[in-house]
Amino acid sequence: MAQLWGGRFKGETDDLVYAFNASINFDKRLYRQDIEGSKAHVTMLGRQGVLSAEDTGSILAGLDSILNDIEAGSLEITSEYEDIHSFVEAVLTERIGDAGKRLHTGRSRNDQVALDMKLYIRDEIDQITVLLRELLETVLNMMKEHIDTYMPGFTHLQKAQPVTFAHHMGAYFEMFRRDIGRLTDCRKRLNECPLGSGALAGTTYPLDREYTAELLGFDIATRNSMDSVSDRDYLIEFLSDLSLIMMHLSRLSEEIIIWNSNEYGFVELDDAYSTGSSIMPQKKNPDIAELTRGKCGRVYGDLMTLLTVMKGIPLAYDKDIQEDKEAAFDAIDTVHGCVRLMNGMLATMKIDPGAMERSAVKGFTNATDVADYLVTRGVPFRDAHSYVGQIVLKCIERGCAIEDLSLDELREICPEFREDVYEAISLQACVERRRTKGAPGLDPMQDEIDEAEEYLKTFK
To answer: Quick check: pTM over 0.90?
Structure first.
């Protein structure tokens, strides 16, 4: 068993205890960040005269060789070691001798792992932001293509008023845009370097923590050493952001599942993003959308795991905090997969504008506009509302749309109807009259698309 703390102990650690305590099986994914942090720490120690130039150069070269060999596949990270920090230090010492034992000068595993996690999460924020940007580009392309594809808008999952598919997808554009904004804010808050805080009380070595922070791309060094090693606020915030991303993906998945059903037929999923049934040969199931919807709860669970772990921990570091990694890694992997799959599913999904328009017509989505038409003829809105309710009831009994009724039939209910009512209540007219900012009318919708294009340009 390779560990860094054996000097204090006379007996061997029980194998079960060792395995329970070890983190190498999951924190090995931090190898790049651990080596990056170690290189910055050693560079600073050399600059401060804590390490000789010879030892500094030897350690840096050794760390580079370890990184290169891991990434080339010629060096395996094994469970012989307690954690990734032990692995790197042990291999370094094997390769360069006693100089490797000086690697840990002026730091603790507490500030080391705090640094590794911040570096890792910072990298993941950047990667997930790229994935969300690609998803936004796909959504924007759908908006451009379907600016005049009419469909029913819903409240309470009941058909309400006509909108366009572009307008509907624009709502998801805003959701994913906010997700990027939250990740950006989270990155700003976590970008403080904890290295040099030691176990909890700093160190007697003359470290230049601001220099280390600069080498690693942080804005500043953290201000309190106890907080530095025990803080996981940034990770809880990050998992909260991932939970919101998953919530948005889940809502969109729910709609895709509904739209893909035989009853709606608004969309058809590509075969690549569907599966069949083992017994019913006619089935084409939206399993990817359903799994995305289901995995939302998994990420919520990861967030709750970390919130629960942290709620009763006294200052400073406690071993409970080791539980942060598996929850974070699981949430990250889940979000990566779900965002990528959603992007591919949307990009290949076929839209049926005819089915959407027929659904809007049959759902009386122009009923509010019929009432508004009567208001323009001088009828009080409350009376107009009642008249239109009677018209809808008549249509339900007849099994037809409002515009299928003759003018005489409309005037039997309210004499203020004129021939121009049919033009006024067409889906196109209903949508086009909605011209306030953010509405589905052509002009505001085009403005929304133009603004979305400008937003995406900020990433290039």
So the answer is: yes
